[in-house]
Amino acid sequence: MGVVSSVKTATRSSGVLRNPRTPTMIATMGYQLDTPVQYVKRVGPRRAKVLEAAGIRRAEDLLHYFPFRYEDRTRFRTIDSLRTGEETVIEATVLIAQNRATTRRNFTIFELLVRDATGAIPVKFFNQPYLEKVFRRDTRVILFGAPQVDSYGGGLELLNPEFELIEGESELRVHTGRIVPFYRKIGAVTPRIIRGIVFGLLAGLEGVADPLPEKLRRAYDFPELSAALRQIHFPDAPAAERERRELIQQLEERKSPAHRRFAYEEFFRFQLGLHIVRQERGEKSKGRKIVTGERVRNRLKQILPFHPTEAQKRVLKEIVEDLKKTRPMSRLLQGDVGSGKTIVALQAAAVVIENGYQTALMAPTEILAEQHYATVTRYLQAVPYRVALLTGSVRGKERKEILSRLQAGEIDLIVGTHALLENPVKFHDLGLAVIDEQHRFGVLQRSRLMEKANEPDTLVMTATPIPRSLALTVYGDLDVSIIDELPPGRKPVRTVIKSERNRAEAYEALRRELEAGRQAYVVYPLIEESEKVDLRAASEMAAVLQREFPAHRVGLLHGRMSAPEKDAVMQEFKQGRLHLLVATTVIEVGIDVPGATLMVIEHAERFGLSQLHQLRGRIGRGSQGGLCILVVERARSREAYERLEIMRRTNDGFEIAEKDLEIRGPGQFVGTRQSGVPEFVFAHLVRDRKLLDLARRDAGVYLQRLIQEDAVRLIDDLASDWRRRYRLFDVG
Ligand code: ADP
Ligand code: MG
Q: Which has the closest alpha carbon to 269: 729, 676, 726?
């Protein structure tokens, strides 16, 4: 009760943004947003199960299940003016209703003859004998359908029309006589049933408070919540036909004022939460003092074996500025594969170490951790830093020693895996945590690292590029650093597209590379529904290839393997004991195998562009440059070809991500979850980009007001709600 009342107070003072998850305490006769779907009329326990399986648990979820299509069923015609094939609504009375005998088994025809003041028309329903109980002589009915010519008699008839009985003047017209919504079927619950349920739900909805502050709603002329829901599900139909057509188009593109309102609200909520979380972070003080001077600058030069790119310099500067602030850093470092993130992280580590604090560099797998350790020790040869590696395989005496040195502050930089999160691991004074390939770590794991230290600065590195413009729109320019430039002299991977018919050419390329003593990958897409089939296909392919190249060793890597098994295979490949690697799974991100120069990707059309780009980033890490062959299924649509053309044309991961986003939308943007772009339900990052800008600005202003009004409880609620929804994306 405490929460509810305090939210209410806060609500009164500062607009009406309340936490929608706060359950309503007072039961009333009508439906509330949090009424369980089971209690909504026409749902009942059986349908409720189906709906719940689809994530629809409360009335609100049902109302958020938006139609994807609409039909104009407003036009009434008299029976004498019906035209063949034209969808029409008629209002009529039943003259005759009967099931007709048919000669075929399992096939029934229920037949009506209906009339209005101008004439009569036969109506047939197939395989719905129960309609006998629905229609009687003199039943008044609304029918919707396209009349067809009866193949026997030559007159017009209606086949399986949508219908609704009129039981009195006050009868609500759900399925006809209006712009009618179409929903995607949910299990056995048909679109028509959903329509009926939603209609009843909207009619009984009571006391819905609009969470969007009224001032903002007014400013953009957005409809109020319940009005918006009505306009989305059962829109008012304009009188003119052309206007109705335009409205339907707008609704289907989700650009109606009502749709935009939901998109805006979602962005606003997201941005508000983001502002709050940042604010909280800003209030924290890490109690560390980081300075940079001549000495630190010299050290950084000592570490660098090459001239940094402009992008690397800019990003390092952004990071160092953050390190010097009192609030803990929480920064996402994005850079395409091979853009040189490691050295930047290492320079940041050097700044921290020079100031007397420790750094942890965490990788998702043992093999990546070992690779980092090797790289890092190479870079740090000229400086006296004490570096150690801690993974699951480091055991016994060695482990004990590392742990005690770490706690005593005798290790400056520790490279490791999840092993760093385990309980016995204690830092002397952890100043910076660098997390490579963010998506492999959950938030919980990250927060466990945070607990081990006094608000360490965190830098999360990811190679999945979010389109630059998008990252900036979502986050503002605060917490994202982007390396958008490759080191000079890099030979780009050449990409070619081949149809299955020309697979022999791909084999030839494989033969060439293998015989020249180089290594290659063959990648299979993994489709979750048919994992077994794909697995089989990949194993068979591995066997075929082994026969084809008997002088070389072929390995197999797939998603069903355990992490140590995968690591073992990767290790063998890395050490050159395997020459050809067939993989169903995304090849371990970030692994460097300089000898691998060729990648053949089967069924390339099934991958997202960003994913293809990630994959081909695995080759050409040595001095030779690489070749990527995209094998496309026979007779694939031109669209698939055009899409893949982009891969041939450019090596710029950001450009590719942008295209991916355009073509597939952020929902399917492969690696969305991994890349740190939140997933929105109503809003579309490309379509609604302008709204996102507005929401970001508004959220900042609104939060300032909440703070002035001291609405602490509300702010806390908003923050925890935000964390629940967007936790995958919370880099802090
Ligand atoms: P990623 O961003 O994919 O982690 P890495 O940090 O592994 O990339 O760098 C890829 C390769 O490029 C490494 O071999 C690294 O030594 C090299 N490299 C990084 N920065 C530069 C630079 N400025 N000039 C030349 N080579 C560089
Ligand atoms: Mg890397």
A: 726
